[in-house]
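Researcher: Quick sanity check before group meeting.
Model: Go ahead. Protein one:
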Amino acid sequence: MTTAGIRRAQPYVTAFDGLRALAVIAVVAYHASLSSAPGGFFGVDVFFVISGYLVTSLLLDRATIPTTLDLFEFWRRRVLRLAPAATGAVAVTFALFALVGGRSLESLSLEAVGALGYAANWVFLLREQSYFETAASPSPFLHFWSLAVEGQFYLLWPLLMVVALRGGGRLTLFLLAISLAAISVVVGSSLYDPFGDPSRSYYGTDARAAGLLMGAALGVIARPGLLGARRFLTRPAIEAIGWAGVLILAWLITRGSEFQPFTYQGGFLVASAATIAVMLAGLHARNSVAAILSIAPLRWIGLRSYSIYLCHWPVVVLTQPQMSSALQSWNLAVARFAATLILAEISYRLIEYRFRSPHRAGAATSTTTWWQHPVAGFVLARLPIRAAAGLRSPWAPPAG
């Protein structure tokens, strides 16, 4: 990478923290089965678009055309940013559910390895684990499917970026992102079976990559301040676009359903487009949408949204069905959210924040400190053995 190819890092967009907060609240509310958020799963699409934008803009800010060293540095930073908290969540969840029971250790181990390897969505699909039929014995790692989709995107998209930039520049990269997003929408729609389980359209990386790719396309053309776009969009226009996006997302979250054909045949696309509309307002900064998304409470939740997402689903699984029958839905939701916030704050302070900002976390932070923790080490060492047993079992001859 030559000096001439280096770009200045873009400023931090505080409104994105608020957008993350709204997304994770929607997801948690959906998993809490609140009647007010039947479409809360659309919050995942919000995360996808933000991630696609940030990954693409980050790599473009590093260099005109990322080199091999740029890619390895990007992957190293992604691993340090995401893997420690995820590993901690997997280790604690595995140990806890191994004690309380409810799932075989073989299944639990295979799912945990899939979560750690960012392949959970394909593990669940190969094992025919529906995302929607979870009343009996849901996997405590079910929510890792979306992290798997993102992880696979982080691996493949930077490579495609290099090819596109070398072959034709930023316009080629933009057209590639849009084309692949369109293909993903078509794949997801064609895989949907209105008379069967929609998990293939819901889990599959090929079916759900559109949001990430649409965010990537935005990352090619937009920066904080919107660069040249301000010549074509006035501040009131950008503000109106942002509020339109907010209203569409609110409608999807409060009126959507995983059983509606629209969800798989355009719904995810609409959610991604609405997210882009909100992000455009956030990138401009000087408007009411960006101001509201930047308020302190939303930013506090948004900064912890990753840890909240990691912790919330094991809490839901652990508290059903016993607590579900003992508490009213809203009381149970409040109890679950409180427990999730406590666990997420612990994860954020002890793990995520230390690896995200090691220079501020102090000398106590080191990669060996976490990996050498005895509980995590024991659990992680046992996972491959149990997972291997889980992989053999479907094809093993019947007993007797």
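Researcher: Fine. The other one?
Model: Protein two, sequence then structure:
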Amino acid sequence: MSSSLLQPTHHDTYPFIDPSDQLAGSAKGKSVLITGAGLGIGRAIAEAFALAGPERLVLVGRREAGLRETRERIRGKVGLVGDGFVVGDGEVARDCDLDGGGCADSDPEMWWRDLEVNLKGTYLVARRYIRALREYYGSTTAGNGHGRTEGKVEGRIIHVSSNASWRYVPGRSSYAASKLAINSLTEYLDGEEGSDVVDSTTGHSKNTAIVRSVALHPGGVDTDLAATLPEDVRKRILIDKPELAAGTCVYLSLPRADFLMGRFVNCTWDMEELEKQRERMESQDLLKSKVMDTVAILARIGPPLLHCGSVQQKSEETGGDNGIQDSRAAAYRMQGTDWWNIAVPLCPTIALLQTEHSTPQQQ
């Protein structure tokens, strides 16, 4: 992926997503729960939603002192601020392993911990949130609901992903795998819970809770998690303000951002410009993980890996063979951006897992 999907790119908040500017009052009547709200990006998100005027703001984290500090910073901006404190033991005190070694030299328990914290943690929070909405609002799929509403309640989950989910960084396999899995989990959750389910017998809705999901890269922010990175690396890539991710979260909570649900979004992209691409996003189903085959990539891979497929395709651009590919893989052409791909074995062919925005060349 190039440095951006759309120009301009941002490193700090801007009026279109600013909860004290164009998004002022946009969270009115909403209840917002924020995990990891005790410091860093989570704290910035809490402060942004406070400015957007929600009815209720709930702060959750593992560090009680940090939560109390966040609450004091935003007290008076909303009607009610609650905080929760989850006590973690020493085994989960570390958010993720930033060991720079490869898979073969890694410690299996430390390697797996990234998936336990990032992926399983994300799954458990999403699962409990969805079930709580079903139970409270009386969904027939939740068993004995309270029946608080005769209509539908809509919820939204913003998952924290990363550019590492599509960009190769040596020594970060566990972190990257966990974030790529979060992208996929987001797509599945939005597909499963983001639309109504109608009983074919009665014609009535089975579920009163409709929950949309989106995966967000919060930018390159210099947080405690990045403390082990070399100083020169931190200065080069950790150039984004936490307020940028915070404002983007407020924007993604709005109905106007529905077209981005189930997708990967980078907070450095300009959301106003992204809205102009809405029709293209929806019609071509962009910003999702795809299995693909690409002319240039196959050419670089070379002949040994070109014997796995079964279908010859002709390239209109080169006038020659596009490489041999399995009939289940589509050919894609990138427009206006670089290619960043992760090669994965997908028998009986070699495919490329790609989370870049892409345009189908052939269906």
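Researcher: One line on it for the slide.
Model: DSSP finds nine helices and 13 strands in the chain.
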